[in-house]
Design brief:
- This protein has four helices and three strands.
- By secondary structure, the protein is of the alpha+beta class.
- It has two domains: 31 residues; 66 residues, no CATH class.
- A three-stranded antiparallel beta sheet has the order 2-1-3.
- The longest helix has 20 residues.
Length: 101
């Protein structure tokens, strides 16, 4: 079924509800301009993300101190990325402690 056919089969209440949902979603997207996150991965595995560069630097310092003590060296990538504000918590939730990497 095409979108045109789907819309043609809606009654006015359903169509009004769909329009409200679309409007709400568009407003949410406009209000939620993407923010910059700093993302760290070690050996291509996600480890840490934060919108605050200072937190990333502190994490890296702790990680490097731990790795230097163990004598292990890994490939570390730090790069900026963009995410909607509603996605930031999901990225931060997955943060690992430097000593656990």
């Amino acid at each position: 079924m095409s979108i045109k056919e789907f819309v043609a089969n809606l009654d006015l209440d359903q169509l009004s509800h769909c329009a409200e949902e679309v409007e709400t979603r568009l407003r949410t997207l406009k209000e939620g301009e993407k923010v910059r996150l700093w993302h760290v991965d070690v050996e291509r595995t996600f480890c840490f993300a934060s919108p605050e560069p200072k937190e990333v630097i502190e994490w890296l310092q702790s990680f490097l101190a731990h790795r230097h003590a163990s004598g292990e060296l890994d490939r570390i990538n730090v790069y900026p990325m963009s995410a909607y504000p509603c996605e930031v918590a999901g990225w931060v939730k997955g943060n690992e402690k430097p000593e656990d990497v």
